[in-house]
């Protein structure tokens, strides 16, 4: 087989290589609150009225250069007739200066006025160009963001936790194929990519190679394994957190490259069991896991005055010590003393006006 033969089987150009204007149905940028039609019409009417008054002032300033002596009302009349291209011809510029002013000033404003009259079509074209430009700018700047694959119940909860922890919405990218989920993500101020996360070209569009972390939360375990494999191939050093329904598939995700695996079915099962015996414990666990309210489990760097101290004796309720990316529980020998560079896992009281800790 010749070197050119494989190219014959490549029937599609990678999405990542396509120009931005072709990705308007794939990448969706969050929009500001849309303006009401009444306000849009009123704004355009105001622009048109402003142009008429502007031309009227220019004409009135040179009122002696026309076929008859003009009052300001005459100047307004001439401006309205001229800009609307009606052109009755009862008032015309006769001097060289007046004609030059019409060429340099009135004619360009007339064109702008006509554009306002056909503003709907122009608005559509401008809107698409603006969206393409925003996508282009976003693709150039995106890095160190978080990609959430799957915006179902688990994905939405993950995003809620990220937002509660101080992550900006424009630093989160959602990948899904469900139009409803993508609409919800956009309404939440998130960038969304429409496509299957099992395809590397879709993950490239979401910026996975430049992402700081990737949350894999699809609806099925086999999809989670395939997506994790693809993500790890594109991002050898990125942090991958994956969700799996059954514990027997945990090792598959770990072998596929997941740094952390959450088993949803077992976690839910434990909560159900606790709820039958000690419902108050479940209530407290829900409080700890719910972002933005009550208590929450957080992580922070140690202070200079805390180095060398026993974490049990600190003001915060410390649950563990993170050292060199390893978590040591509070009862382990490694967590007896706080060392420089450690981070503390502790229980934080959440208030409505709290600023998340770093």
UniProtKB/TrEMBL annotation:
Its predominant location is membrane
What InterPro entries does the record point to?
Answer: K_chnl_dom, NAD(P)-bd_dom_sf, RCK_N, Trk_Ktr_HKT_K-transport
Output one GO BP term: potassium ion transport
Cellular localisation: Cell membrane
Task: Name the GO cellular-component terms.
Answer: plasma membrane
Q: Which ranges carry the RCK N-terminal domain?
A: 143-263
* Keyword tags: Ion channel, Ion transport, Membrane, Transmembrane, Transmembrane helix, Transport
What membrane topology term does the record carry?
Multi-pass membrane protein
State the signal peptide span: none
Short name of one Pfam family: TrkA_N
Q: Which residues cross the membrane?
A: 45-61, 100-125
Any idea what this protein is called?
A: Voltage-gated potassium channel Kch
Can you name the source organism? Corynebacterium gerontici
Taxonomic classification, please?
Answer: Bacteria, Bacillati, Actinomycetota, Actinomycetes, Mycobacteriales
* Name of the gene: kch
């Amino acid at each position: 087989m010749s070197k050119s033969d494989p190219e014959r089987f490549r029937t599609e150009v990678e999405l990542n290589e396509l120009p931005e204007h072709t990705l308007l149905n794939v990448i969706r940028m969050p929009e500001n609150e849309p303006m009401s039609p009444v306000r849009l019409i009123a704004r355009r009417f105001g622009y048109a009225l402003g142009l008429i008054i502007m031309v009227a002032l220019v004409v009135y300033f040179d009122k002696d250069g026309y076929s008859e002596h003009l009052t300001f009302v005459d100047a307004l009349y001439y401006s309205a007739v001229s800009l609307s291209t009606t052109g009755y011809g009862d008032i015309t510029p006769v001097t060289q200066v007046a004609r030059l002013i019409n060429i340099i000033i009135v004619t360009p404003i007339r064109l702008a006025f006509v554009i306002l009259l056909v503003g709907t079509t122009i608005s559509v074209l401008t809107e698409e160009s603006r969206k393409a430009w925003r996508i282009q700018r976003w693709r150039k700047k995106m890095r160190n963001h978080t990609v959430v694959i799957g915006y179902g119940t688990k994905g939405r909860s993950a995003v809620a936790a990220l937002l509660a922890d101080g992550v900006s919405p424009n630093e989160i990218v959602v990948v899904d194929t469900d139009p409803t989920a993508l609409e919800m993500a956009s309404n939440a101020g998130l960038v969304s990519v429409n496509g299957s996360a099992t395809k590397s070209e879709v993950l490239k569009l979401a910026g996975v190679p430049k992402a700081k972390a990737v949350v894999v939360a699809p609806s099925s375990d086999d999809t989670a394994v395939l997506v994790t494999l693809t993500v790890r191939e594109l991002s050898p050093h990125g942090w991958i957190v994956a969700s799996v329904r059954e514990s027997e598939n945990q090792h598959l995700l770990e072998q596929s490259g997941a740094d952390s695996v959450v088993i949803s079915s077992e976690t839910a099962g434990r909560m159900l069991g606790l709820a039958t015996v000690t419902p108050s414990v479940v209530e407290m666990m829900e409080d700890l896991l719910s972002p933005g309210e009550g208590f929450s489990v957080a992580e922070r760097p140690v202070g200079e005055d805390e180095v060398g101290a026993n974490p049990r004796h600190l003001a915060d309720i410390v649950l563990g010590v993170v050292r060199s990316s390893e978590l040591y529980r509070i009862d382990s020998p490694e967590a007896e003393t706080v060392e420089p560079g450690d981070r503390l896992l502790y229980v934080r009281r959440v208030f409505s006006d709290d600023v998340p800790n770093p």
